[in-house]
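Notebook, p. 212. Picked up where the previous page left off. The plan for this session was modest: take the two constructs that came back from the sequencing core last week, fold each one, and keep the raw output in the notebook itself so nobody has to go hunting through shared drives later. Recording the first one now, exactly as returned: residue sequence, then the structure token string.
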Amino acid sequence: MAAHYRRHNADGSVSGGPMFYLARGLAERGLPRLGRFMGGFYAVGIVIGCLGIGNISQSNQAFIQFVNVTDGTEASWFADKGWLFGLIMAALIGMVIIGGIKLIARVTEKVVPFMAILYCSMAMLIIAMNAEALPFAIKAILQGAFTPSAS
């Protein structure tokens, strides 16, 4: 539905998502007011959700890890400067978002491959560090998958 009901803008960009397909799809079915309400409700809900549900936790965890990497909780110069870390992160992310979808795509195409390689490398390292537990883990997976309690 997102691809079918997306909007192609004059500048060549594309707008879409649930707020568009709810409004446009329900309008096609004779319910334009319900579609506008549901699309608007979804958009407002996402904005409210993004303000505190996931982003605060993620930025807080990033700050904690940054402090740990820079001499730990007490010794780090950054230990009491969470506001500075948050301000720097907000500025960097804001520059990318304000740059538009093309800048987001350019940044993403550079960051995502690095993240994938790092993630896979660290997963393999953790598996290698716990190689003695691997036979037990495989056995537990197979036993759990093929028993009545697996559902």
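Okay, moving on. Second construct, recorded in the same format:
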Amino acid sequence: MALTDDAFAQYQEKGYVVVEDVLNEDERATVKSRLREYTHGDREPEGFATQTEPAVERGDVDIDDPGNAVRKMEGLGMVEEDGVFRDVAHHEGIVSVARELLGPNLKLLRSAAMLKPPEIGSEKSFHQDAPYYPIRPLDHCTVWIALDEATPENGCMNVVPGGHTDGLLDHETRKYDTDIVVSDDTYDTDDAVEVPMEPGSALFSHCLVPHYTAENTTSDWRRALIMSYMTARSRFTLSAEERPDYVDSHHITGESFPGCV
């Protein structure tokens, strides 16, 4: 799978591009079934953490099943310990585009599942992905893969076109430790464009692109996988002892380099 010249130019100028039909129906069904095993079955997470919707965690909302409140799974253990997620991280349709954007030598920085449960899926305010990860250069690519139809009503991505050229913005912690967002007066929703997506499509976005997702007001799930890729020449700016537990790397393709991730 290759980007057209126009698609490549859009990523450079606007900081994002959507590639359609990256995962087929069978691949999506396999991933959604595996997610369900973790949220509603007896499969235990290995090497990654799960997060519950804050309103449920606080006791503001009652639910019938704890699985209906899972908001996020996060950690490279998803890829290193589970073959279903590993297949997505190494999927040629995704990796080929990442190679075009970042070069032939790639490592995975992040794997996650972002879930907005029906009716209680909460918003995520404007933020950039870069502040979460102590690496340089700040040019890694987040791939947001829609497993369900993503709409404005259920919390599709909203991005600020060209916002990656503003550099690294100041962020603050809000409702919980990893709720890192920019101040409310930095952007208005009118500054962003909605990016509705069909199941199986993938949004490739620069780590400095500001973005947000609204709450899910529908009766359907809005599920997505995230795989973030970086050039293997990237460097961590903190030692292994200083880095947060979720910061590490996983080899994808090409060469590795001494002193790099």
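Notes on construct two before I forget. The longest helix spans residues 25-40.
Flagging for discussion at group meeting.
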